[in-house]
Specification:
Layout (H helix, E strand, L loop, with lengths): L1 E2 L6 E2 L8 H14 L6 H11 L7 H12 L3 H14 L3 H33 L10 H9 L2 H13 L9 H27 L11 H14 L3 H7 L10 H19 L3 E4 L4 E2 L1 H7 L12 E4 L5 E7 L5 H12 L7 E7 L3 E3 L1 H4 L5 H11 L9 H12 L7 E6 L7 H12 L4 E6 L10 H6 L4 E4 L3 H12 L2
Parallel strand pairs: 6-7, 6-9, 9-10, 10-11
Antiparallel strand pairs: 1-2, 3-5, 4-5, 7-8
Helix pairs in contact: 1-9, 2-3, 4-9, 5-6, 6-8, 11-13, 11-19, 16-17
Protein name: VWA domain containing CoxE-like protein
Length: about 475
């Protein structure tokens, strides 16, 4: 036995992978890749907590780790699913390993048969096309009827002694595979957006846990709403989604309305953070934390795209911002498509949001039209330029799809010079931004975030508004 100099607890002098601290580090690594925030200090706290409970009791170990590592309600189920999948008996891990090897072998055989099938189709022309791994995987994932359709089409092509169709066949084959690669990426990408956001580690055992949690997590209806694309919320789910949105908005509003914030200046002692920071020293207050009064409440300007491609997202985002009105001293709200409209007076009627939105949509001249961000920003500068101050945060909600994006970028640059910061919430997945001309020209002037789900919206605003 030895005393750990960092945690101050006794631990066995054992090394290797099958140790408490090694498995705990791997578990927290999984949680981070599933989107949970787990710091090194919290990992040390978790290790110390485990030394205080009976390690033979699975429920006590789970409760101790949950108490230290889980900070938000949505993270509770992520933690539970990850715990059940990671901490399993050795025989179950061995069984999972064998199953994984069988699946890998089965996939290898499928790819080998697909390569052989393609080469057989091309053999009458004595030509070789070097298919890469991605081409073979695309062919395997194509529907069986489409595979047959492609191979039958190639077989029907016959050369002649004057002009061999070999080059043409190669182009046809490659074009067909490229089309299906794009189609499958698009359709499966939409399906992936309905699952828990998770990043893989590259380590097979950990990735199995992460993938399993991401799949299981989405089966819970409440969590499905949090992570689902706003555009795919069905009519039957709108009421429940609205209640969830209001709850998250109220929670953030309460955080924004707090009178104190963290501070490095020696003013009022922050007992909670002081105790937390000194756990590693056995509770002795060697390092003190302070807090100070907030200087002023935030000034916020919302500019929301309500064109045809954005109207669905705009409705939910406007409602979220509407719920923050009591916590933020100054909120000005605008919508745009072909031009800019100020909608702040609608939000000051003290009516329920459904009534407000109904009146707003009926009175608006912009809802559901095409997008001209350049004209909209010019109108904003002329009519409401006096609203821009050095302590104003501007939030723009748009998919960047607009005519004359370069002219709009110049107007955006002028706007950026007058405000504290510009946050751009983009409902298009980040992996598709390279296909949007507007993203490239707008990025130098804003901080852009992927934002198509309620979870992303709440996380972004929570992090940015509480700075």
């Amino acid at each position: 036995m030895g005393i750990n100099p960092v945690t101050g607890v006794a631990g066995r002098e054992e090394k290797g992978e099958n140790t408490l601290h090694h498995n705990l580090v791997r578990f927290t690594h999984i949680l981070r890749h599933l989107g949970m925030r787990v710091s090194m200090a919290e990992t040390l706290d978790a290790y110390r907590a485990l030394t205080l409970v009976d390690l033979k009791s699975r429920e006590k170990v789970k409760a101790a780790l949950r108490a230290v590592l889980v900070k938000k309600a949505p993270d509770r189920q992520i933690f539970d699913l990850a715990f059940e999948r990671f901490f399993v008996p050795p025989e179950d891990k061995e069984q999972q390993y064998l199953l994984r090897r069988q699946q890998e072998e089965k996939e290898r055989q499928r790819l080998a048969k697909a390569r052989e099938k393609l080469e057989q189709v091309l053999s009458p022309w004595s030509m070789e096309i070097k298919f890469n791994q991605e081409d073979i995987q695309t062919f395997v994932r194509m529907p069986l009827q489409e595979q047959k359709r492609l191979t039958d089409f190639i077989r029907r092509m016959r050369g002649n002694p004057v002009n061999s169709p070999g080059e043409l066949i190669a182009r046809v084959m490659q074009s067909a595979l490229n089309y299906w690669r794009y189609y499958l990426l698009k359709t499966q990408g939409e399906e992936a957006r309905r699952q828990l956001e998770a990043e893989l580690t590259g380590e097979t055992e950990l990735d199995d846990v992460i993938s399993g949690v991401a799949a299981d997590f989405y089966r819970d209806p409440d969590d499905q709403l949090l992570y689902q694309d706003m555009q795919h919320i069905g009519l039957a789910e709108v009421e429940k989604y609205t209640l969830t949105l209001e709850r998250l908005s109220r929670h953030l509003a309460n955080r924004l309305s707090r009178r104190y914030r963290q501070s490095s200046r020696r003013q009022k002692l922050d007992m909670r953070r002081t105790i937390r920071r000194n756990i590693a020293y056995g509770g002795s207050p060697l390092k003190l934390c302070y807090r100070s009064r907030r200087r002023h409440k935030l000034r916020l300007i919302l500019i929301c795209d309500v064109s045809a491609s954005m109207a669905r997202y705009a409705r939910f985002i406007l409602q979220f911002i509407y719920g923050l009105s009591n916590a933020v001293q100054y909120i000005e709200s605008f919508v745009f498509s072909e031009d800019m409209e100020r909608i702040t007076p609608h939000f000051r009627k003290n009516e329920d949001f459904v009534t407000v939105m109904t009146d707003l949509v009926n009175a608006s001249q912009q809802w559901g039209k095409t997008t001209d961000f350049n004209t909209a920003l010019k109108t904003f500068h002329v009519q409401w330029g006096n609203l821009l101050t050095a302590d104003t945060l501007v939030i723009i909600v748009s998919d960047t799809k607009t005519i004359t994006p370069r002219e709009a970028a110049r107007e955006l640059a002028a706007l950026r010079e007058k405000v504290r910061d510009i946050l751009w919430l983009n409902p298009v997945p980040a992996r598709q931004w390279s296909n949007l001309p507007g993203v490239e020209v707008f990025l130098p002037h804003v901080r852009m975030f992927e934002c198509y789900s309620l979870h992303q919206l709440e996380s972004i605003l929570h992090q940015q508004l509480l700075k």
